[in-house]
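Step 1: inspect the first sequence and its tokens.
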Amino acid sequence: MAQIAQLSPGVIVTETNLTTVVPSVLTTAGAYAGAFNWGPAKKIISISNENQLISIFGDPDNNTATSFFTAASFLAYGNNLQVVRAANANSYNATSNSSATIQVVNNDVFQYTYLPNGAANTYGPFIARYPGALGNSLTVSVIDAGANSTQYSAWNIPLINATGTNYANVALSSFFNSQPSTSYSVSQVGGANDQIHIAVVDTGGLFSGVKGTVLETFSYLSKAYDSMDSYGQSNYYKNAIFNNSKYIFAVDPVNYSSTSNTWGKISANTNFAVLSGSFTSALSGGNDASVTDADVINAMSYFADPVQTTVSLIMTGPYTNTAVQTYAINTAATRKDAIAFVSPPYSSVVNNSGSEQSSVTTWINSLSSLTGGPIGSYGFADSGWKYLFDRYNNTYRWVPLNGDIAGLCVYTDTNNNPWYSPAGYTRGVIKNVIKLAWNPTQSNRDALYQVAVNPVASFPGQGTVLFGDKTMQSQPSAFDRINVRRLFIVLEKAIAKAAQYSLFEFNDGFTQAQFVSLITPYLRQVQAQRGITSFQVVCDSTNNTPSVVNNNQFVGDIYIQPNRSVNFIQLNFVAVGTGVNFTTITNTTA
């Protein structure tokens, strides 16, 4: 340690931190890209439970159910799912101007493109917050300071039946304390008539299940760009809706020709233009376009960067095209900290009586030819689909098992450690199964396991069980088992994080010894938890030669003997006669 110069007598205290430890790493974060009816697209959203999945991405329908229930199946085991909604280029947001099409996939797109400057009345004053036909169910109504008491009290939205006749009104004035006028802060700087009320109504009933339900209201918003509420937050109507609405964005001033000159101005000395009554806009033009494999791959690409995204279990859901599944496995292999889970195509196992084994074998051979070798150790294939009840639509659905298999890894991490196998009766029981599309027999399971497809089978009285733990690696090695692959993912990720603190230090005996003393206790802990049987850490002059040091490099060699899961059990029963000495028998049969 460098000597600190002192100019007069005294005591100087310094400290050096040599307590760096190997950090814990997250191993149970799921990743899923798929089709949903609502919610932000092309952006990672964290989901912790099925209720939150519904709240953000909407109820499933016939087009999105298999995608939705893949995510929901995973959430039956864990509470950390990173979701990206895939969106086709022809999916549009509903707007106040049905003749214009627009796709705003998430808040970021709107914030940087339309929030500051609007769209010159191209789309009208409001658009649905996300792409999809669900937005057509929304109607937005505005009343402002220009309305008199009679107009305010009569403020409502008429509901229209199929023949175009009004059959009911949704009264809105009761949702607000009083009619809008001029806010105090605006009045103090010479402005007037800045306040408006806004109501968002589910006139189609697609969000709430009841036509005419008022979904949300916004009281005493301001037309003034610089208006603030009592909490110091922006009260400008466009900003307030952007920050708080779950259903809409405000794009341009209402009744554009008469209000655009003042709405959005600063409040000083501005007499804001007013509407003489209420303004109502039924949104339309929202469109769902079928999600393609390319759309799913594009959505899945948001998980490609391990620095920006922390995920470890990548599900492919119902997207069984080779391109999607190959991309998922290659993404996991490139990241080196995740495993991709794949299921066979629907047609291979559902209503394919007698041909399931050959169809699944054909599928896995095609996929393995593209992802074999070491890359294959980052892929895990199961044998089928399950039948479950869709309580949102009161029907039954076939859903692929890869969401459940990834969920079993979460269950294993929670109750044991990632280096335990997620298969078998202890940790491999699958939830929410009415029946399997194909329940493989022993001979089927034997054949599947030879080609690295992990059978899922139902056993009377014992449930539906994952009955294999092979990765898709073709060559025999320790990495052809998922528990070993996940063990090394954990070790590599944790030790790499610890090793980064050796960057820019001197490559000398002190740093080398410090590295060994840092890693060794961590590996002893993993050994004590049955993850490894033995290990050795080498970091000294034997591998940090002068050439290595001169090239500004640092080498640590870590040798691991992983523990293996039991895949085959042999029980030998021997019948012996009365009076026979067991010691003699065991010595004879040994």
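Step 2: inspect the second sequence and its tokens, then contrast the two.
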Amino acid sequence: MRPIAFIFLVLAHFAAFTQPCSVEMLLKVPGNWKGPGLGSVHNVTPENLAKEKAVVGEIQKMISSAYQPYGVNASYSYVFGYGLSGGKNWTADPYEYVIRFPDFTCNPNDNDISKKWINPEPRASIWVTVNEIFRGGFQLYAADLPEDHHTPFGQIDAWPEKRDGYWFRKIRDSGFERSGNRHYQYLITYENKLPFKAFTRKQYLEYKIPIMEKYLADYIKNSAEVDPNFDAASKRVFESNQENIKEVRQRIKDVKDMLAKMSKEELDMGAIINNGPNDEFSGFKKEGEPYAKVLVIPDLSYYKRLPKWVPQFFCIDVGFDTQTEAYRRAVPAVEKTLDFSWFKKMLGSTSIIAAAKTGAELSKQTTPSAPQSQLAIQITAGTKHNATPAYDIYRNKTTKGFKQTPISQLRNAAVKPVVNAQQKAAAMAVNITTTNRQAYLKKILSDIESRLSPEQKNTGKLVLDSAQGNMVMLANTGVFLYLKGLLNEGLWCLAYAAAAEPGNDNIVNNLTGIMINAGAVPRALPLARYLASKYPKNTTVMNNLGQAWYALDEMMKSKQVLDTVMLYAVYHPEANATRGAIAEREGKQEEAANFISKSLKGAYNPDVEEFAKKKGLKIDYSNVLYRKRPFPGEYINPLDFRPPPQCTNVDQAAALEAEWEAWNVQVKKASGKIGANLNASSANYTKMSTDLARNHNAPAVPFGSFFKKAALTYKVFLDEYTALSEEAVNYHQTNYKKEEASIDSAHEKAIVKLLEKYPVGEGQRTNWNSYCLALNAVNNHYLEQKAALNDNFNNRFSEPLRRLSIELMYWSQFLPEPMEMREMKYYGHAGFAVNPLQMHAIFEYPCEKPPKPNKSRDSLDIPEPYCPIAFKFKFTVVKLTGDCSKFEIEVNLAKALLIGIERDFLNRKTTLAFGAGADVEIEAFGQKGDNVGFVEDAIPQLIEFSGAGAGGKVQAFIEIDSKGEVSDIGIRSEASLEGAWTEKGDIKIGGKMGVNSGVQITGSDAVQPVVQYLNGNISN
């Protein structure tokens, strides 16, 4: 029997080892798409429901066209309008797309792969929710919280992390968040804003105090029912109750004291509270502490006034069990199909954009559109993939034609630190602990005080008195004083605050960083090492330590620490700059150049730029310059002048047209004020320039610390604005016009067919209701198409041009130029920011109501933009003329010899001209006795700054088109009588004879009848 048993065991083992139903085999089995399952539908109008189905349908097409499930099925479903019952002020509909992944497992009763079965409880899902967040222990909709909500706030684990084009939120308290599992969310929102805001400490304390007082009153009332004289047990209960009452009263007093004594800045901070097993309030917590919850409330100011179906933010919720290999493969594969640029385009769009990439298109991509899943990021060791918005004005883009410096041409530029060996050894021997840190900080304070002058000590006393014992305020004042250049006073404030509150690591870290920057590295090193041991993942703390090690010439230690910093902050400016110096000292020039470029991507720094120049490294500022503004505020906020939505339905026409009319009035008022300010600043600039020309003494222009970055950034944005403006005009004249003509033609044909079906005449069109319904449907379709066309133009060109103008407004204020010039530039850009090229809505009214006679499809073109810029200046031998469509410069090289360059922005042409000319001056400022003179008489005295005069010229010209090719060549002439300051109102008549253009005569508005007569005779 034994041989038979042995053979049986061997065969059983062999069968178990080679059986076909294995995980690897199951992962090769193609799955199926199941759906759509239609979930609940609540409080959604039929019109909105149809649009919402179209949106989630596009999401499904985006995924299914690029993803084939293996080892799992892909089951998807939709839910519409589900939300918190009783929510107030609903602004947008919530709706959802969800995909779950039932995985394949082996049939326990059969090893045949064809007899696999499906896990009925899959632990993997991806939710794409529109205008709502409801997973991960947090519910948020486009509405205020209902009256019966258990608290006036919601709770999240931590504030979302801002990334390139989206927000990332890791969810800790979740059913998915078990050993090895993952749960996280991507939030895709308008301009990196959030649809919720912090619930402040002040709001929380004011909410908590009445609750605690009611609890106390109820407790006292219930305690009064206990008779302490009844028996011994009752006496113990009574005494315990009295102790509890005393304790609760003290808690209430503490909370009231917090509300009374906290500064306004502290009270305005977001509230973070304990939400652990015992959630009695005992003070505010820090983000990241155990059981800490950040309190938030909906922010309805985030939303735009749009139809309720329109997506205003997306939440992509990803949760899966990483222990299951099928989910480890399926979820990242689906994430790669999510095109974040599509989601960006859909935000605020009133048209359904069918822009999801097909599987074939995705296979051609070198990187996925959406960020990889967190699991995939770990597997690929830090590979970064970011979604790019349709037009990101902050994007890094290599300048056309830019060539990087060859590595062989780079030279060494890093300076080796000078180190005092004795001080270094002493610093490295000190070990800071919680026991000795206060003594160490007090010694630093004492040393700083010994170096203060009497005036500085007096300043410190005044600052300390104003802080009124608030050490955080004192420390912040110290940072401010340091930034203003008052180093000793700033260090004293920080050292005093740190010595008073040695447990406040933020204060100690600021003191450490400023000591390192000030050169007191040996004294700062022990503090930097102490903080780094507590916060090994904090990039600010670790960077301070890395900089300290470098300053002490400990290259390997510095390199190790700074590399850790860059694991968490790839473009950390200081860490990259110092790593560049270390790489250079190691003889790695290419690596050093890469670190310098990354540093400038993180933040522009003139010292880093100087380092790059000394190395001989060419810098492409369009590619590496970090262009975001450190301060977001605006004196004029053009975002307040965004237009209303396009009309997409005849029933909206009356209300929306009223909104558009109000918007037009608002824009005209703002444009008028901006124009007045522009005129005033132009007059100031004129006076300043005239004084300069007479006195020949240029006043000193005050340069702020920001001026160098401003000059570089301003040029980058100006180049982008010019290029996008030209593209917009060209697009409008070609693609837009063609599409517009097609839509109008189709609409006219539809109307003709409708009239054939419902003819007009005696006794005809008896079914008026049917005719109206049909006409409204035709017009609605037409309005939707025109709205989509206009929205596409506005989103592609108008809004980016507005945002670029806003950036130009901002950076122009810091340019190294006279104040008068900065003001003139600021208001010039403000005019275009308030009213950029904008596609106006059109309106069709319901057939039951008579349409307004002055509306409809008569204004389909770009409305004439408000153009505050029209200038003409003369500086001795140079004349500058320009407006919104052109810029011209003319130079007198010698007697009666003129050279001219003209740039036509609208037609994208450049004209070069040279020849003879004479200019007659009309005196505006001087008393020369003879108010008229010719160029031959005295060129330096001829041209006054006002630009008034009379003259003529005959020139040869060469015309160059947008491709850089010669488009025409010939001769032109001009006679003119010019007014002062601006070319508007000038009387000009010019003739042109070109090889390609033939004979043309042009003139200003005042002589148009003459021009038409002459051109008519020539053509005849």
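Step 3: confirm your contrast with the notes below.
The chain has a mean pLDDT of 77. The chain has 29 helices and 25 strands.
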